[in-house]
């Protein structure tokens, strides 16, 4: 397989390379792609050096699959050009996620909907992926009526500049500011930009993408997305109102039995998910599962996952694996 990684020098692009190596995808040719300023630099993949090429050069090479993580404007401009030469694009930006004719895929939920005709496939937002991966089996069994989500998101989701600001603050140094506030002693209720309705794009992604992926517009969703000074992953407190009665231990077992989910839930010995432990892993970790006694048919839980891996790069590579395994590319 000729596989392009578009945005290869970015944080997610770099993780995509590592995941491709770890999962030993059949990559006959790697095509690292980045902006003009990076063309000619080198990246290491499977202990070999590869020169970064331009978009134009990459399109001419006609990759079988192109993993994109270069921002929405780049995806809007170039994903169709790759698709036009027969490449299947898996796009990590928000550019195509809510397009009616594009599929928004978490493989363990809805990969079966993919066909050879899907030439631009959207990878959901990181905070959505870990949440719907957990909600999907619960929705199938109990029917979800409403979700109330509070996120505690890693600074890596903002980008390199924010990570550098955090590191500088810890070391007492001055440097470029991704936020006009201190990060390391703070919790900033502002992920992405604010919309007219008073919610941020991040919060509305949780609303809209959840309904699309679970294919149920009746699920009521509301969210508050907060940035906190951690690097290991995103954490989410989720209050889930079912349409039917549930049993707490049955919920715990159902999640334990779901591939890709690890239940860490024993408060007697302080076992619960934390970004520090999730960092560098691909699973979604679930704990603090407990009935909400303030409302019938409702459960609370705590969901943690590495936002650069399952929240972005791993999910994208898993889509590629599915396409290859099912002869869809
Ligand atoms: C964030 N979900 O964490 C976005 C991804 N960059 O800000």
UniProtKB/TrEMBL annotation:
GO molecular function, one term: NADP binding
Keyword NADP: yes
Binding site for phosphate: 97
Known catalytic reactions: L-aspartate 4-semialdehyde + phosphate + NADP(+) = 4-phospho-L-aspartate + NADPH + H(+)
SMART domains, sorted: Semialdhyde_dh
The keyword Flavoprotein appears for this protein: no
Classification via CDD domains: ASADH_C_bac_euk_like, VcASADH2_like_N
Keyword terms, alphabetized: Amino-acid biosynthesis, Diaminopimelate biosynthesis, Lysine biosynthesis, Methionine biosynthesis, NADP, Oxidoreductase, Threonine biosynthesis
Enzyme Commission number(s): 1.2.1.11
Pathway: Amino-acid biosynthesis; L-threonine biosynthesis; L-threonine from L-aspartate: step 2/5; Amino-acid biosynthesis; L-lysine biosynthesis via DAP pathway; (S)-tetrahydrodipicolinate from L-aspartate: step 2/4; Amino-acid biosynthesis; L-methionine biosynthesis via de novo pathway; L-homoserine from L-aspartate: step 2/3
Binding site for NADP(+): 9-12, 37-38, 176, 307
Binding site for substrate: 153, 227
Cross-referenced InterPro entries: Asp_semialdehyde_DH, Asp_semialdehyde_DH_beta, NAD(P)-bd_dom_sf, Semialdehyde_DH_NAD-bd, Semialdhyde_DH_dimer_dom
Active site: 126 (acyl-thioester intermediate), 234 (proton acceptor)
Domain Semialdehyde dehydrogenase NAD-binding: from-to ranges: 2-117
GO BP term, example: diaminopimelate biosynthetic process
Family membership: Belongs to the aspartate-semialdehyde dehydrogenase family.
Function: Catalyzes the NADPH-dependent formation of L-aspartate-semialdehyde (L-ASA) by the reductive dephosphorylation of L-aspartyl-4-phosphate.
Subunit structure, interactors included: Homodimer.
HAMAP family attached to this UniProt entry: ASADH
PANTHER family: ASPARTATE-SEMIALDEHYDE DEHYDROGENASE, DEHYDROGENASE, PUTATIVE-RELATED
Protein name in the entry: Aspartate-semialdehyde dehydrogenase
């Amino acid at each position: 397989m000729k596989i392009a990684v578009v945005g290869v020098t970015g944080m997610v692009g770099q993780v995509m390379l590592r995941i491709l190596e770890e999962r030993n995808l059949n990559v006959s040719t790697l095509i690292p792609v980045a902006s003009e300023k990076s063309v000619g630099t080198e990246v290491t993949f499977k202990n070999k050096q590869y020169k970064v090429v331009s978009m134009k050069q990459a399109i001419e090479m006609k990759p079988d699959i192109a993993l994109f993580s270069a921002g929405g404007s780049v995806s809007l401009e170039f994903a169709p050009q790759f698709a036009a030469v027969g490449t299947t694009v898996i796009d990590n930006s928000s550019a195509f996620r809510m397009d009616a004719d594009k599929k928004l895929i978490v493989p363990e939920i809805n990969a079966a909907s993919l066909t050879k005709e899907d030439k631009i496939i959207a990878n959901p937002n990181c905070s959505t992926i870990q949440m719907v991966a957990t909600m999907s089996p619960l929705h199938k069994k109990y029917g979800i009526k409403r979700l109330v989500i509070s996120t505690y998101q890693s600074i890596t989701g903002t980008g390199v500049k924010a990570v550098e600001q955090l590191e500088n603050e810890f070391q007492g140094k001055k440097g470029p500011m991704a936020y006009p506030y201190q990060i390391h002693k703070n919790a900033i209720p502002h992920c992405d930009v604010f919309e007219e309705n008073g919610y941020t794009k991040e919060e509305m992604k949780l609303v809209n993408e959840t309904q699309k992926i679970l294919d149920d517009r009746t699920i009521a969703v509301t969210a508050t997305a907060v940035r906190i000074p951690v690097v290991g992953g995103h954490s989410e407190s989720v209050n889930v109102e079912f349409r039917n009665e549930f049993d707490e231990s049955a919920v715990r077992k159902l999640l334990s039995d779901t591939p890709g989910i690890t239940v860490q839930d024993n408060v007697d010995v302080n076992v619960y998910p934390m970004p520090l432990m999730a960092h560098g892993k691909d699973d979604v970790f679930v704990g603090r599962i407990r009935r909400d006694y303030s409302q019938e048919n409702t459960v609370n839980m705590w969901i943690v996952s590495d936002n650069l891996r399952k929240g972005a790069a791993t999910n994208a590579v898993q889509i590629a694996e599915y396409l290859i395994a099912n002869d869809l590319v």
